[in-house]
Amino acid sequence: MLSAQERAQVAQVWDLIAGHEASFGAELLLRLFTVYPSTKVYFKHLGFCPDETQLLTHGQRMLEAVGVAVRHMDNLRAVLSPLADLHAQVLRVDPSNFPLLIQCFQVVLASHLQGEFTVEMQAAWDKFLTGVSVVLTEKYR
């Protein structure tokens, strides 16, 4: 899936955001809700305040899952299988929302990392997150 260079770029970006999962995740969710309001239907319990505890908590859980995926790039299916089951069978999230989330995540990364987030890193993250999205949507079939 990813070349050695792409893997290194994904890991390099993750190293820059690790430890800030809650704030990055909350910003990601707020951006998602603002740009794609229909996605809020799955998060009725969350508000629009960046400091809201529930928003920060869910944002942190989301980004911690990304961190697990970063650490296990070679084994995404096995690592993300419980999360895929949850989204497909319990939460019944529309799989068309995953690409929207990826777009918003890329914008959050670019806005925070700016010059450090090179075009090559963006391409590597796009490829990586698309792979994560594919794994998460496989359980819908």
UniProtKB/TrEMBL annotation:
<dbReference type="GO" id="GO:0072562">
    <property type="term" value="C:blood microparticle"/>
</dbReference>
<keyword id="KW-0479">Metal-binding</keyword>
<dbReference type="GO" id="GO:0005833">
    <property type="term" value="C:hemoglobin complex"/>
</dbReference>
<dbReference type="GO" id="GO:0019825">
    <property type="term" value="F:oxygen binding"/>
</dbReference>
<keyword id="KW-0813">Transport</keyword>
<dbReference type="GO" id="GO:0004601">
    <property type="term" value="F:peroxidase activity"/>
</dbReference>
<dbReference type="InterPro" id="IPR009050">
    <property type="entry name" value="Globin-like_sf"/>
</dbReference>
<keyword id="KW-0561">Oxygen transport</keyword>
<keyword id="KW-0007">Acetylation</keyword>
<dbReference type="InterPro" id="IPR002338">
    <property type="entry name" value="Hemoglobin_a-typ"/>
</dbReference>
<dbReference type="GO" id="GO:0046872">
    <property type="term" value="F:metal ion binding"/>
</dbReference>
<keyword id="KW-0349">Heme</keyword>
<keyword id="KW-0408">Iron</keyword>
<dbReference type="GO" id="GO:0031838">
    <property type="term" value="C:haptoglobin-hemoglobin complex"/>
</dbReference>
<comment type="similarity">
    <text>Belongs to the globin family.</text>
</comment>
<dbReference type="GO" id="GO:0020037">
    <property type="term" value="F:heme binding"/>
</dbReference>
<keyword id="KW-0597">Phosphoprotein</keyword>
<dbReference type="Pfam" id="PF00042">
    <property type="entry name" value="Globin"/>
</dbReference>
<dbReference type="GO" id="GO:0042744">
    <property type="term" value="P:hydrogen peroxide catabolic process"/>
</dbReference>
<dbReference type="GO" id="GO:0043177">
    <property type="term" value="F:organic acid binding"/>
</dbReference>
<feature type="domain" description="Globin">
    <location>
        <begin position="1"/>
        <end position="141"/>
    </location>
</feature>
<dbReference type="GO" id="GO:0005344">
    <property type="term" value="F:oxygen carrier activity"/>
</dbReference>
<dbReference type="InterPro" id="IPR050056">
    <property type="entry name" value="Hemoglobin_oxygen_transport"/>
</dbReference>
<dbReference type="InterPro" id="IPR000971">
    <property type="entry name" value="Globin"/>
</dbReference>
<dbReference type="InterPro" id="IPR012292">
    <property type="entry name" value="Globin/Proto"/>
</dbReference>
<dbReference type="GO" id="GO:0031720">
    <property type="term" value="F:haptoglobin binding"/>
</dbReference>
<protein>
    <recommendedName>
        <fullName>Hemoglobin subunit mu</fullName>
    </recommendedName>
</protein>
